[in-house]
Amino acid sequence: MNGIEAAKKAIEIYPGIKIVALSMYSNKNYYLSMIEAGACGFLLKNSSFQEVEKAIVDVYNDKSYISIEILNEILKNPPKSNESYPETLTERETEVLLLICKGLTNNEIVDQFRVSKRTIDKHRENLLLKTQSKNTANLVVFAIKNGFLNF
């Protein structure tokens, strides 16, 4: 079984599991598939020990992690979305999405907007539902696919 199948199977058996994929593949479609399968982080096998450690810590702390090499590859040729998402995002949800893509935690977003943590938790929940994303990594992929990020 390949990594994509293994990730899907692991999530099926342990729904709360947090997966950091480490692969020698630098194929954009492969790591997008891994993220869509439920991986919260993705690194290449030539990553430094410090980067692997950071990815594990970030994912453990409910963040996502995509190595800079992979993110640069995605940004060079962003995948086009074949499907439109069913609901439009509010202006605030879009702002929250962009801050999530920058790697901010909910608490850091609370500080930016000076609202309650509960409000930001609800925005994140709405984003996950509206975009049909499983986790933060999926939200980042969604933002890239749908042109929310301009670099």
Describe this structure in words.
By secondary structure, the chain is mostly helical. The chain has two domains: 3-76, Response regulator (Rossmann fold, 3-Layer(aba) Sandwich), CATH 3.40.50; 91-145, Winged helix-like DNA-binding domain superfamily/Winged helix DNA-binding domain (Arc Repressor Mutant, subunit A). Helices cover 57% and strands 7% of the residues. It has helices at 3-13, 28-37, 49-60, 68-76, 91-101, 106-113, 117-131, 136-145; strands at 20-23, 41-44, 65-66. β1 (20-23), α2 (28-37) and β2 (41-44) form a beta-alpha-beta unit. α1 (3-13) runs parallel beside α2 and α5 (91-101) crosses α7. The model has no long low-confidence stretch (mean pLDDT 84).
Could you give the count of β-strands?
3
Can you tell me the CATH architecture of the largest domain?
Answer: 3-Layer(aba) Sandwich
User: Helical stretch count?
Assistant: 8
Overall shape? globular
Number of domains: 2
* Integer average pLDDT: 84
Unreliable residue stretches = none
Task: Tell me the major beta sheet.
Answer: 3 strands, parallel
What would CATH call the class of the largest domain? Alpha Beta
Strand content: 5-15%
